[in-house]
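Suppose a classmate hands you a notebook page containing two proteins, each written out with its sequence and a corresponding row of structure tokens. How would you begin to make sense of it? This section walks through that situation. The first entry is reproduced here exactly as it would appear on such a page.
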Amino acid sequence: MTRAKFSVARKKRKKKIMDQASGYRGLRSREFRRAKEQVIHSLRYSYIHRKQRKRDFRKLWIKRINNALTQYEISYSRFIHGLKMAEMDLNRKILSNMAIEDPTEFEKVVDRVKEVLAKN
């Protein structure tokens, strides 16, 4: 009789893949080879999209700030330049939330930026 080797490790490795593949459709959740392929692709997609999510949120914040700035008649690029000149360390996420949740404070920031831009 041949000697069984790696049985515990192999079963553990396969179980790990199959647990990750639970919820997939068709053979991708039932057959090990298909499940392994899909898990590899899924992990790659999740890695890529974690990076992409950061880009997407930055784009969203910029759009929100630009939209809020239209009523103050200042462009987004001039506003950001004015923030740097005024040495106000506010990031785009904070500015976006401020424009939505607290327009009066946002208006104060815009006024300060306009003052700084007018001086220079």
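The notebook's second entry, a different protein, reads as follows.
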Amino acid sequence: MIKSISDILEKLEEQSILEKSKKFDISPEDRMLAITKETGELLNMILCLTGAKNMLEIGMSTGYSTMWCAEAIRKQSGKIITIEQNQNKINRAKENFQKAGIADIVTIKNGLALGILQDLSLQKEYRDFFDFVFIDADKENIIEYFDLILPLTSVGGVIVTDNMLYPEKYREDMKVFSDYLKQNPKLRTIMTPVGNGEEITMKLKS
């Protein structure tokens, strides 16, 4: 039985509340949510306002952020390519997508983000292809990811990067990243404290 996307999101949010309680000892990499509900709402709003059709996500987790985006992308008859390394999370995400009836618009690429992005960058069909990109991957390679993503992003396309403020241990690295973006005249970027802190970047020209 196919449930609505909102039903599945609500279920994941309920499970996340249980995971955060002291009743369960769950490692961060196995938790249900990678972004906050407020961030999901922000992503959905940006997608609706821009009318984005083709989306790339780096760091799918169990598909919570993907589903927030899919609700808007589906209205444009668009597609999502999402990258995830953890097979357990991929299995859980596939189940969530099937239940929400969005499996047909989501393509999951299993593997290291750096390698997959390098592969996409070599394919001409993906040049200036993605109208929206969401980055929620490891912070150590964040600038490398962005440099590979930018040529894949359409002019006027939006790139949102999570975890600009939290966890605090990444804050200095993310400030370096934000300063790096501000030096590029082809970009316009701003940070919002929504959720864990989101950098919203627009590609102004190729």
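A careful reader of the second entry would note: Residues 167 and 196 are 7 Å apart (CA to CA).
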